[in-house]
Write a structure and sequence with these properties.
Helix content is 63%, strand content 0%. With 163 residues, it is an all-alpha fold. α2 (12-34) packs across α3, α3 packs across α4 (57-76) and α4 (57-76) packs across α5. The N and C termini lie far apart (42 Å).
Length: 163
């Protein structure tokens, strides 16, 4: 089981994908947890989710932690498949609860009442790639996989000596 969780190819394109996702989700999580980048901070975000959107508090906390810790996990490539799964679920729920009603496109011109779900589709597809393929090169997952005692030993063929 651990091998499947941490195994990842030494692929630099996965690294680039993972780093981009990690930065974006960490920034959104930092808005919610720390109030950075113009965000409201933890208390105001939980209050908005619970009172305005009617989301139970424990789910609101999970959303906040998924973005913040999931972003860090993706950035460093640690437990990347778990982080990608949590964030993909969050994106699907966000589309269902909020963004689907606003249409496909983002609110580029400020003419619609909210943001569409085009960003979410891109994020879900990229997160799915990380779930399937792994974190790529330059990740803690790759380092753990490479140095793990669970790593499968290569099978060597040795012919039977003839008599």
């Amino acid at each position: 089981m651990f091998h499947r969780l941490f195994h990842t190819p030494d692929d630099h394109t996965l690294t680039l994908l993972r780093l981009g996702l990690g930065v974006v989700f960490f920034a959104h999580g930092a808005q919610k947890v720390l109030g950075w980048f113009g965000g409201s901070g933890y208390d105001a975000t939980v209050n908005f989710f619970t009172h305005t959107m009617g989301i139970p508090e424990f789910l609101a906390v999970l959303v906040i932690l998924a973005e913040f810790l999931g972003g860090l996990g993706l950035f460093f490539g640690l437990l990347s498949r778990i982080a990608a799964f949590a964030l993909a679920v969050e994106m699907l729920v966000a589309v269902y609860l909020v963004h689907f009603a606003n249409g496909f496109f983002m609110n580029w011109n400020g003419t619609q009442r909210g943001e569409g779900f085009e960003f979410h589709i891109l994020a879900i597809c990229m997160l799915f790639t990380i779930m399937v393929r792994g974190a790529g090169a330059w990740s803690f997952d790759h380092l753990i996989d490479r140095n793990s005692r669970f790593h499968a030993a290569p099978v060597r063929y040795s012919p039977q000596p003839s008599i």
